[in-house]
Design brief:
It is built from 11 helices and 8 strands. The chain is α/β, with parallel strands linked by helices. It binds 3-methyl-2-oxobutanoic acid.
Length: 277
Amino acid sequence: MSRYSVLDLRKKADNDKLVMITAYDATMARLVDRAGVDMVLVGDSLGMVVQGHDDTLPVTLDEMVYHTRCVSRGLERAHLTADLPFLSYQISPEQALASAGRLMKEGGAQSVKLEGGERSAEAIARCVEAGIPVVGHVGLTPQSVHAFGGFRVQGRSRDDAEQIVTDALAVQQAGAFCVVLEGIPAALATRITATLQVPTIGIGAGADCTGQVLVCTDMLGMDLSFAPRFLKRFAALEDTIIEAVGTYADEVRTGVFPGPEHAFGGAPAAVPLAKLP
Ligand code: KIV
């Protein structure tokens, strides 16, 4: 079975919602692939949910390549896209191409995602020209968290909303095959989705996008203290994991685990008698 190509995704998007989710390692990749998602994103959100940083800015290209390679080994069907991290593409279009090339050659990504609208158009065009499919990302772009003064919904004023429409069009014009719309009012996402020819993938952008994306650890409820409005939890793994590991600890301490069924049979190994002095 081969992974969905950009062409497959385009066809799918004509009739169906696209389903994207993040993954950062081979185990999660295998599970989300079996669940039937269309696209797996190795997001630079790994800086927060894997590395424990407050934002995505410290993530390096080497780290993205490493996690992309891990995820790649777990996927059979889903399309694999990977984020270009902060300052791996903003310096020049040539830098963007070189960084994107590493995610493809060393990481096994089939496409790359980068943040920004008009300001990133040249970088997108350079990658596309070299045969690298690109996912755009506009609205609340987390790598600009300091410019935004926090992780805030964008596009609430008329001017900001117009700029986001312009950004989405610029990204499409530069050749992106789909665009993530993050943290914008639903009505604005509806308008952008109706305006663009390429699919939109929403997160905190309402129901009218062509598809949706969520961070795997968020939607699985692995940190129940994280509860933004846009998030729906489909499980509460934080509780499940704490309970399971607590039970394991109790059983080890009380001698219940391992039981005879977990021990290997067979003749005792020939253990030399302790040497007498
Ligand atoms: O880094 C990430 O996980 C993302 C998604 C939330 C869109 O960019």
